[in-house]
Amino acid sequence: xxxxxxxxxxxxxxxxxxxxxxxxxxxxxxxxxxxxxxxxxxxxxxxxxxxxxxxxxxxxxxxxxxxxxxxxxxxxxxxxxxxxxxxxxxxxxxxxxxxxxxxxxxxxxxxxxxxxxxxxxxxxxxxxxxx
Length: 131
Description:
The protein is an all-alpha fold. It has a single domain (3-126), classed as Serine Threonine Protein Phosphatase 5, Tetratricopeptide repeat (Alpha Horseshoe). The chain is 73% helix and 0% strand. Helix 2 (19-38) runs antiparallel to helix 3 (42-55), helix 3 (42-55) runs antiparallel to helix 4 (60-72) and helix 6 (93-109) runs antiparallel to helix 7 (113-126). Residues 1-10 have low confidence and may be disordered.
């Protein structure tokens, strides 16, 4: 490390990359996204969740949360894209069911009632209920 690098990036900066601090950052972004959503600030929640999804792109729970924030922020088309992409990930049946349930709501908002019904049917199948 040269003198200029030491000036701009002191040794303590390395702590930001430590796994424990990274996990804390992820948890903080997660909590902020949640709190902003429950207090009706979906645009702000969406910003935090977008960042969190960039850091953890394969967590289906975070993708569902982002899709809900997109939906509530007025972008149901983006919410649909996120949910459809997330269905490509490996998930438990419970996670898939939750994804189809939110997808049904998104499609309903897009005035695609037939597709919404099909997503709701998939939700019921994943929940292992008789239809």
